Amino acid sequence: MSRQRDREEFVSIMVAEGMPLDVCRAVMRLGARLQREAELQCSDEATDRDRVVCPGKKRDGDCVCDYDQATGQHRDVARSEVRELRARQRVEALCAPYGIKPDFQGDPRGAVVKLKVPSGRTNDWGRVGVCVP
Hints:
With 133 residues, this protein is an alpha+beta fold. The chain has one domain (3-131). Helix content is 44%, strand content 12%. The protein has four helices and five strands. The protein has helices spanning 3-16, 21-43, 45-49, 79-95, and strands spanning 51-53, 76-78, 101-104, 113-116, 130-131. Helix 1 crosses helix 2 and helix 2 (21-43) packs antiparallel against helix 4. The protein is elongated. The model has no long low-confidence stretch (mean pLDDT 87).
């Protein structure tokens, strides 16, 4: 299928599930961002060298590092992991009001984000959910 057809199919399914068009577009943008981050994490050494402080110090539930229980210190993490965390949180927040649960795959060879809709409809081979193009 073409990229445009994938996008149109996604929008038609999600609108039928009760998600507004502007939210569908936002989820697709975030899905594309997560796809790029997954590709970078798999193939780019520079991604590993660009390190930042784990955001776990600022908010609960934001820890993406291997938290050291003995010292109580967070470790540095790749900046792409923090960007991925923020995008995942945003997708979850956008989908929650409509009873839709995102499933984050993380493998860039397929759909990185699939949405589990209340009707149970799927369009992927594994019958997990609706693929975000």
